[in-house]
């Protein structure tokens, strides 16, 4: 009986088990990828507007900078002249080069003053005190007031004051210092007569103190960026420093300053762009003046604008490369 059962079992063909096809797995996207996709969604209106509206205008402006324009009854015609407009701006028009150097020197004066002043005010306003929100609003009010028609009125008053001072000097007046200046160079030299300092340092300090009004006006946005960076630092880090016995001075240079170093880079880049695009910039005003002269002036002003733009890009790359080497980025687990 047992043998028959065994023979029957042996005659049964055993088929090998076929492997089951794995089901379709869903791709799990990380939170970082989702944020990146939403970022592209948010900037898509700008990208579409740039490609459809601004990019054709930019390419046309570049072509205009290499041409001469002739107007007639049927419209205008463009004659390609190569680098003639650029050569005129560099070698013939001396005012453009002088204004360009003046703008760069003003930038070197304004960047350290605005970045350091806004950081100082942000550190003070980040402390716990009564009326902190009111003080923040007070320091940000100049940013709102100095836009639009208020800026135009302020600029006209400044030009009128400069013309009045120039008239007094041409008439033989000895009062060179204007009424809005806080200190003069003679006063700074008298205070620093016991120190061996150069005339350049005296001029820098004088311009720094007398230009405090413009520095405060241009420090509002930078101050808010610094405040956002300071508030992102965990309070537990400061508590650990206090437990270890670190002083406020050591805490600032070892904790606060490295943690907000990315904000210093952002504020520096923003300050450069804001300075080069402001209505009080001498280069921008001179280019507008040349543009409104005649047809040749329009083409020459276009070439000057692109040279000015390239110079700004080079300065931004240089500043970004130098500061980025000292920026501290906190590592975060993704």
Short description:
The protein has 334 residues and is mainly alpha-helical.
Evaluate the radius of gyration. Answer: 32 Å
Low-confidence stretches: 166-179
Compressed to H and E, one letter per element, the order equals HHEEHHHHHHHHHHHHH
Please indicate the percent range of residues in DSSP E strands (runs of 2 or more).
Answer: under 5%
Helical amount among residues, as a percent range? over 70%
Mean pLDDT: 76
CATH topology descriptor of the domain at 83-144 and 215-324:
MetI-like fold
Q: Structural class, please?
A: mainly alpha
Which overall shape is indicated by the principal axes computed on the Cα atoms? globular
Spatial order of the strands in the main sheet? 1-2
Oligomer: single chain
CATH superfamily of the domain at 83-144 and 215-324: MetI-like
Number of strands: 2
The first-to-last residue Cα distance is 69 Å
Number of helical runs?
Answer: 15
Give the biggest beta sheet: 2 strands, antiparallel
The CATH architecture assignment of the domain at 83-144 and 215-324 turns out to be Orthogonal Bundle
CATH C-level class of the domain at 83-144 and 215-324 is Mainly Alpha
